[in-house]
Design a protein that fits this description.
2 helices, 57 residues, 91% helix, mainly alpha
């Protein structure tokens, strides 16, 4: 997996967690949902990249 893609995916996961936590803290369900979606998007992309690595080696 390319280091750039890996760091971008990890950034999405982290940013999603932050949005989810802030949304929960201030009672903003919309922000909390967006954070959850972004976190899952990062995790899915991370899993796809790991799968690609398995077939490369």
């Amino acid at each position: 997996m390319g280091i750039g893609k890996k760091s971008k995916n990890i950034g999405n996961i982290t940013e999603g967690k932050t949005k989810e936590t802030v949304g929960r803290a201030v009672g903003n369900e919309n922000l909390e949902g967006k954070g959850r979606a972004q976190k899952m998007k990062g995790k899915v992309k991370q899993a796809v990249e790991k799968g690609k690595d398995i077939f490369r080696h």
